[in-house]
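User: Hey, quick favor. My workstation is busy. Could you predict this chain's structure for me?
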Amino acid sequence: MLLVFLPSPSLLSYLGYADSVAIANSDNIKDPFTSHIIGELVKSGTLISLKDIWAFQTSFYQTIITFLIAINGLIAALSVIYIKTTSEEKAEETTKKYMHSDSFDVLLNQKIETKSELSFQDLKSDFSAGLDSLEESTASIRSSNERLELLENENKTLRQQLKVVIERVALLDSNEDEGKNETLIRKSD
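Assistant: No problem, here it is.
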């Protein structure tokens, strides 16, 4: 028996042929006993209907598709893992190769020189400002020391003059009669 052209089960169900069996070359069956036996086989359920064939075929294809999807997923997961590890290794290798190259050394030296030059300029300006402030403070301290020395000398001179005045007053005080007629007046400039 050969089955030919099996349309979709929904179309066969719509047309009412879903439970029928298609026999290839049914014109060649001339024996009534063979026709009777085929009828008995259909009635007893020994022969498969088109609906059953489609169910088996659909189930078979679904199983194959499921296995193909699972294999495809497994291949995709393995390829992602492989690509990830190779790309990480390649990135590390490229990075190491670049870091050991002359262009990286030149670029790094330029960056370091630029940063150090800027830091040096900042430190130099801070040092210059501190030095100027220190010079101003030194000049101020020097002038204050000179003023202090001048005031100390003036104080020393005034003490000596005061000592002379005290001795003179003491001498004049010993003689009570002397200078009693003298009055102290303020001298105007």
